[in-house]
């Protein structure tokens, strides 16, 4: 199988970065994974170095693309617990 890698011009880099900044969550991860796949071999490294994208986010997006299962972000589950849960007599 023959893969063609894409040449990254400055205008293409700018377009990809602006698009990635506008997307959130699973849509952003899917876009990043598809972009890296289009870049070909070494695409994750190119995306990290030249466009400032996070490799962990890219690899999560690739796993979502290959498996077909979208990870659900649980931002509400983060943070500090309420004092009542620690001190029920409060």
Features:
elongated, mainly alpha
Folded structure, characterized:
The protein has 90 residues and is mainly alpha-helical. The chain has helices spanning 10-22, 25-39, 43-51, 55-67, 83-86.
Mean pLDDT figure:
82
Low-confidence stretches: none
Helix count, per DSSP? 5
Order of helices and strands: HHHHH
The profile of the biggest β sheet is: none
Task: State the helical fraction.
Answer: 55-70%
Short structural description:
The chain has 90 residues and is mainly alpha-helical.
Element layout with pairings:
Blueprint: H1 10-22, H2 25-39, H3 43-51, H4 55-67, H5 83-86
